[in-house]
Amino acid sequence: MIRTVRGAARLEGTVTLPGDKSISQRAILLNSIASGNAHVSNLCHGDDRASILSCMGGLGISITAHLNCAQTGAEECFLVQGQGPDGLTEPDTVLNAGNSGTATRLVAGLLAAQPFFSVVTGDESLRSRPMDRIITPLSEMGAHILGRVDNSLAPLAIRGGNLSGISFDQPIASAQVKSSVLIAGIHATGETTVVQPAESRDHTERMMRAMGADITIAGPRISVRRSTLSAMDVAVPGDISGAAFWLVAACVHPDARLTIRNVGINPTRAGVLDALRSMGANIQIKNVREIGDEPVADIVAESSQLHGTEIAGDAVPRAIDELPALALAASLASGTTTIRDAEELRIKESDRIMATVAGLSSLGADIEERPGGMTIRGVDRLKGASCDSAGDHRIAMTMAVAGLIATGETTIAGAEAADVSYPGFWRTLNSLTSQ
Ligand code: S3P
Fold it and tell me: How far is CA 207 from CA 43, 183, 298, 423, in A?
């Protein structure tokens, strides 16, 4: 689908975000293997929601949607009937994780511990993403996993059960891999330790601890032992990765003020706020509070005079999904911005270094591809043009925001990709420009 976005004279309004995709998937998966029932409210929207619900449904878990939920007061919530650590049933067909790397890798950690046969796969993009990064540690724990192309790609065929704890030195910072091993670890005998090279998002650790897992965290070392989780209601915070598009839009637009409510600001995820602040962004964090085990705030972002910055090293995992949007911010900042150490971007839902450079260049940005990142020299303005989402939700939304700031008209081919994480994105975009 092609969408057209026109440069907006003014951006103003209040944004309500979909639930955080990472926290949503963990809330559904961990409650499925907990004992007792749990209500999950403000679940993420879009195809990634469907992916985790269909995988857990395929494993025999009952998850039902309820409107005007009496227990939580939420407009919509999901009742997950946890079956305990041994309550999953062998799926009678292939589990389909769609476009979701998180669902695939977290579910694979769970399947590694089940005494049955299962196959997990996904769409074309997912089937090209590296799975050896989970196959290696899960096999070392005792699971039997086969994948295509030298055991590196999905579909993955898994016969699990009888796992033993390992100590796993992660070669790259990845919360998906860390979580996969920890989920296997709460089913294994002995201790399972993951050592992180840099801190990646810690939602799994927070949620497991709150649900009663035997987990210890000592600097970069996270250890778990066999545990039975207790069901826990989760009110999912708004997705900071979705907020990033509006933050960037407000900061680079010359006449903008946006309020974004209920944003998850977990420090292991909030790299986008740090990066924008280091560029001189006019951002205020208000009403900071804890919802469950996650910090949440309202954020006000306004037109700013941005300048270039460097995003590298430990800052990268904390902003990994927000780098395309930050590249857009850098395209309109004064001076040069360098993004380094971000090779992982090449193996997301698309090659995000290539797709970001192609998209922003077509609107007149001065942006160069590097093996592990991008070099961006700010320009005075972007000019509307035709571009492509590369089938990637974050690229579709980055280009839509670029279109809001650019002069004239921008057409985005493959715009439907935004539905993977943010189906309400276009409605919100229209509401902010039509006031
Ligand atoms: C995620 C972790 C990140 C991120 C992805 C969601 C998660 O991937 O890019 O969108 O929920 O754990 P990696 O862990 O592979 O870096």
Answer: 15, 11, 22, 26
Instruction: State whether 11 and 50 are in the same domain.
Output: no
Pair 84, 14 in one domain:
no
Is residue 259 domain-resident? yes
Q: How confident is the model at residue 197 (pLDDT cuts 50, 70, 90)?
A: very high
pLDDT digits (tens, 9 = 90+) for 299-337: 999 999 999 999 999 999 999 999 999 999 999 999 999
pLDDT at res. 72: 80
- Which residues are bridge partners to 175 per DSSP? none
**CATH number for the domain that contains residue 391:** 3.65.10.10
269, 300: one domain: yes
219 plus 295 within the same structural domain: no
| Cα angle value 40/206/109 (rounded, 5°) | 80
Helix (H, G, I), strand (E, B) or coil at 187: coil
Dihedral sign, CA of 262, 264, 265, 266? positive
Of the candidates 237, 300, 313, the one whose C-alpha atom is nearest the C-alpha of residue 273 is: 300
Atom of ligand 1 nearest to the CA of 175: 14
Q: Which of 47, 123, 293, 321 is catalytic?
A: 321
Contacts of 400 (CB under 8 A, 6+ apart): 3, 5, 245, 410, 412, 415, 418, 425, 426, 429
Confirm whether 293 is a catalytic residue.
Answer: no
Domain that holds residue 63: 21-225
Ramachandran angles phi, psi of 293, nearest 5°: -105, 15
Return the pLDDT at 70: 80
Residues 375 and 425 in one domain: yes
If you measure from the C-alpha of residue 312 to the centroid of ligand 1, how many angstroms do you get, rounded to a whole number? 17
11 and 66 both lie in a single domain: no
> Is 389's C-beta closer than 6 angstroms to any atom of ligand 1?
no
Assigned domain for 230 exists = no
Residue 408 has pLDDT above 70, yes or no: yes
Q: Quick one: which of 103, 143, 150, 144 has its CA closest to 122?
A: 103
